[in-house]
């Protein structure tokens, strides 16, 4: 079932990790190295990833492979 965020094209960190089949620690490692998709930081500190940003990021990974 889609949440309000996924309906608006926003993914939670858990959604992203599930979709990419990676751990949170892998995501944070990529983010520290500047290799993760663009994120939004909410006022409560949670991260969100726009679907469009993830799709763009995946396209760049495809070209680099």
Order of helices and strands: HEHHEEH
The oligomeric state of the chains shown is: single chain
Structural class: alpha+beta
What would the average pLDDT be, to the nearest integer? 89
Distance between the termini: 33 Å
Q: Helix fraction? A: 40-55%
Main pleated sheet: 3 strands, antiparallel
Q: Total number of β-strand segments?
A: 3
Integer-rounded radius of gyration: 12 Å
Strand order of the largest sheet: 1-3-2
Strand content: 5-15%
Tally of helical segments: 4
Shape, per Cα inertia axes:
globular
Low-confidence stretches: none
Topology:
Layout: H1 4-7, E1 10-12, H2 13-20, H3 24-32, E2 40-41, E3 47-50, H4 51-64
Antiparallel strand pairs: 1-3, 2-3
Give keywords.
globular, 3-stranded antiparallel sheet, 4 helices, 65 residues, 54% helix, alpha+beta, single chain, 3 strands
Description:
With 65 residues, this protein is an alpha+beta fold. 54% of the residues lie in helices and 14% in strands. It has helices at 4-7, 13-20, 24-32, 51-64; strands at 10-12, 40-41, 47-50. A 3-stranded antiparallel beta sheet has the order 1-3-2. The radius of gyration is 12 Å and the shape is globular. The N and C termini lie far apart (33 Å). The relative contact order is 0.18. The model has no long low-confidence stretch (mean pLDDT 89).
